[in-house]
Amino acid sequence: MEKKQQSSGDMKENKAVKKKMNWSGSLIVASLTGAFGSSFLYGYNLSVVNAPAVYIKKFYNETWERRYGFSVDESTLTLLWSITVSIFAIGGLVGAIIVTPIVKFFGRKCTLLLNNVFAVTAALLMSLSLLAGSFEMLILGRIIMGVDAGISLSALPMYLSEISPKEIRGSLGQVTAIFICIGVFAGQVLGLPEIFGQESRWPYLFGAIIVPSLIQVVILPFLPESPRYLLLEKHNTSKAEKAFQTFLGKDDVSHEVEEVLAESRVQRNTKLVSILQLLRTHAVRWQVITVVVTMGCYQLCGLNAIWYYTNSIFSEAGINHETIPYVTLSTGAVEIVAAVFSGLVIERLGRRPLLIGGFGLMVVFFAVLTVSLTLQKTVHWLPYLSIFCILAIIASFCIGPGGIPFVLTGEFFQQSQRPAAFMIAGTVNWLSNFAVGLLFPFIQGGLQTYCFLVFAAICLAGATYLFFVLPETKNKTFHEISQAFAKRNKVSLEMQEMNHYPGERKSSAEQESDFTSSVNNGETKKGVV
C-alpha cells in the first residue's frame, strides 16, 4: 500500500516537473516579444482612437474649413470618423489575405519582424498628420496599421502554436489574447488628460506605436524560427533540432522531431494548399465551418462596439464626462485579469467550456444591460448596473471568446493547411470587424438601448452551434482532433489520413524516395528518425 502511494506521488511529481520544464526561458521570451510587437499593437489601436476622438474631429473640421471655406456638416463628420475607426479593419483584411505567401516564403518569425515596417510607417503618418494639416494621413496610417494587425493576428498564433508543446499549447496561445487586452489598457492609460489625452498631444498616442516595434526588432532575431516550419517546409532537420532544443530547454529532442515527422508521414503531404483546396477537403469541412463561426462571433458579439465607443456608452449610462477616462480604465483592467485567468485555467478546464460559457454569459449580461439602459432614467442606481454589465461582458468575452478562436485555428489543421486556414479566419475576422465599426453608430442611433440585443442574439447562436459541434481539443494532437471530427465530416479515419488533397498527394514511392534522398543528403540525423 505504501509502495502504491509512493508510486502515485512520484508520478505526480514527475508530471509537475515535466510541466515546469515545458516553460523554457526562450519559449517565454519568444511569446512575450512576439505578442508585444504584434497583438499588443492590435489591442492598442482598438482603443487609442477613443480618448482623442473630440480633438481629432475638431482637427477634421478645422482642416475642412481651411480647405473649402466652410465647416463640415455633422453627417459628413460622423461618416469621416466612422471611416477612420473602421478603415483599420480593411487594412486588416488586406493583411490577412497576403499573410499566406509571406509566412510560406519568409517563415513565421521573419514575417513578424518584417511586419514592423508597416507599424513604423503607420506610426509616422498618423503622428505627423496634425503637423502636416492632413487628415488623409491619419486615415492612410490607420489602413497601414490594419495591414500590420492582419498579418500579425495570423502569423503570431501560427508561430506560438508551432513552438509550444501540446501540454501548454492553449496557455501559450492565450498570450495573443492577453496582449490584446494589455494593448487596449495601454491605449486607455496613455489617453488620459494627464498624459497624451490633450489637444496638442494626441499625435503622440500614435507615435508611441514605434516603441513595441523597435523592441521586437531588437530581441526576436536572437530566437529561432518555428521548428515545425523548418522541418516540414524547409526540410532542415539540423536547424529544427536546434530550435526544439532552444524552445524546450533540453538536448534530446529526438522524440519531438520523430513526432512531427510521423505526423507528416501520416498526412502524406506537406505542400501548402490554397483556400479553394482547403474548402474542397471533406476531411476538414466542419473544422473550417467552426473556425468561420468562432471568428465571426469573435467580432460580431459586440465587444469591438464597446471598445470603439466606450466613452459614448458610459455617457449614455449617466457617467460625468470628466470621469469617463478614468472609469474606462476599469474595462482594460478587467480585460487583462480575465485574459490571464483564462490562460491559467485553459489547460485544466479545456477550450470548450470556456468558449461556450463565455458566449453564454455575454447573452445574459447583454440582456440585463439593455434593460438597465432603457430604464436608467427612472431608477437612480441603474447607471451603476450598466457599468457592471459592461465590465461583466468584457470579462465573459476575455475568459473564452477573446483568445480561444486563434488557438482553435492553430489546432484544427495540419502544417500544410494552417496558412490557408488562418487566411480564412482572418478574412472573416476583419470583414466582421469592419462591419461592426462602420455600422454600430447607425445601429445605436436606430435601435437606441435595444442595439445590444442584436449582439446577444449572435452570442446565443454561437454558443448553441459550439455546444453541438465543438469537441474538446485540450492536449490532443492534430490526428486525434481529426478523429473527433471524422464522423461529422462523414469521412472514414483511413480516408481522413490518406485522402486530404486529391491530385496533390504524393505517392508512397515518391514519399519513400524523398525520405531516402533527405537521409542521403545528411538532412536526417541517425537516431532521430
From TrEMBL:
The keyword Transmembrane helix applies. One of its GO terms (molecular function) is D-glucose transmembrane transporter activity. Residues 501-529 are annotated as: Disordered. GO terms for cellular component: plasma membrane. Keywords: Membrane, Transmembrane, Transmembrane helix, Transport. It is a multi-pass membrane protein. It comes from the Eukaryota. Residues 31-474 form the Major facilitator superfamily (MFS) profile domain. It is found in: Membrane. GO terms for biological process: D-glucose import; dehydroascorbic acid transport. InterPro entries: GLUT (IPR045263), MFS_dom (IPR020846), MFS_sugar_transport-like (IPR005828), MFS_trans_sf (IPR036259), Sugar/inositol_transpt (IPR003663), Sugar_transporter_CS (IPR005829). The chain crosses the membrane at residues 21-42, 79-100, 112-133, 139-160, 172-190, 202-223, 288-309, 324-346, 353-375, 381-408, 420-441, 447-470. NCBIfam families: SP (TIGR00879). Belongs to the major facilitator superfamily. Sugar transporter (TC 2.A.1.1) family. This is GTR9 protein. It comes from Sagittarius serpentarius (Secretary bird).
